[in-house]
Amino acid sequence: MERPRFRKAFLHPRFWALWLGLGVLWLVVQLPYRVLLSLGRVLGAIMYRLAGERRRVAERNLELCFAQLSIDERQRLLKENFASTGIAFFEMAMSWWWPRARLARLAHIEGLEHLQAAQRDGQGAILMAVHFTTLEIGAALLGQAHTIDGMYREHNNAVFDFIQRRGRERHNLDALAVEREDVRGMLKLLRAGRAIWYAPDQDYGAKQSLFVPLFGIPAATVTATTKFARLGKARVIPFTQRRLADGSGYRLVVHPPLEGFPGESEEADCLRINQWVEGVSSECPEQYLWAHRRFKSRPEGAAPLYDKRRR
User: Which of 83, 41, 77, 80 is nearest to 62 (CA)?
Assistant: First the structure.
């Protein structure tokens, strides 16, 4: 895709409110990092009270995945998860607008040699991530150290799409955005030895998925990771990021490539991925995106696990 360019149409009055909001957000994120962390927690507390549908979905997911916890423990975890989501709002703006040097001071990167080795060998790398609330800033921080291409879906609002893409791509001057449905484009990049950020931990429907256990629950799991690795002749390199509790920034870990992947079957690969997702999300559950309906697709004949959405 071409890099985003400013257009005169973005000055139309229908975008003025958005420009005003973005301007206020730009001013706010000039504050010190620890102040932004506190503001994010306040925003998260407001979201907890007002975003009823998201709260109910997250609460249900925690009930399904952490049944061993008491109700009080899950409620504390739920509130911490919303605090993390509120912080993520400011982290997004930081990754778009902070000077590169200021942002880089927050990065504590481990395992970069695994991406560098794949690049040196001319082999593509599927940077297998999960949907942590720190997703946006994690990708930005790693992108300053190594070029990463990304799967991309165009936003409905043209101005927001422009700001978002420009903010993301400024960390990777030669990075490319790949339309999420452009399988050929992704395979071409992998065969050219590039690294592509990819997260297989959400429910994209049963059509392109297999039902394999996640936290003991049959979960629709995409088989695309196997296909991309095989057809793109690429290594699958897990990647995690975590916001550090002491306020010093973020621990980014590029893990060693998965050995023997693809395996003997797509089902075995999907199970292996879900076991990894289960492990990393359990290590830092307050920073995982529990507001996603991960178990919305169900095996034939199985009862739904979520209440119907309220209108």
Answer: 77
Rounded to two decimals, what is the model's pTM?
0.92
Q: What are the average pLDDT values for consecutive 10-residue runs of the chain, which has 311 residues?
A: 80 94 96 98 97 96 97 98 98 95 96 96 96 94 90 82 83 72 87 93 92 97 95 96 96 97 96 97 97 96 87 54
State pLDDT tens for residues 199-239.
999 999 988 899 999 999 999 999 999 999 999 999 999 99
- Strand, helix or coil for residue 197: strand
- Contact between 276 and 251 under an 8 Å Cβ cutoff? The reply is no
Predicted pLDDT of residue 53: 94
2 in helix, strand or coil?
A: coil
What type of residue is 169?
Answer: E
> Per the structure block, which two tokens stand in for 221?
């799991």
Taken in order 229, 233, 237, 239, is the CA torsion positive or negative? Answer: negative
Tokens of 87: 């912080």
Residue 307: inside a domain: no
Domain contains 305 = no
Task: Report DSSP state, residue 14.
Answer: G
Domain membership of residue 7 (yes or no) is no
4 inside domain: no
Q: Tell me which DSSP letter residue 266 carries.
A: H
3-state secondary structure of 263: coil
Burial of 149: CB neighbours in 10 Å, binned 0-12, 13-18, 19+: buried
Domain extent, residue 185, equals 12-287
Residue 68: partners with Cβ closer than 8 Å, 6 or more residues away: none
Alpha carbons 306 and 134: distance in angstroms, whole number: 26
Name residues whose C-beta falls within 8 Å of residue 252's C-beta, 6 or more positions apart in sequence. Answer: 107, 108, 109, 110, 138, 141, 142, 239, 240, 241
The residue type of 249 is G
Q: Residue 32: give its domain's CATH number.
A: 3.40.1130
* Count of domains forming the chain: 1
Pairing of strands 235-243, 250-254: antiparallel
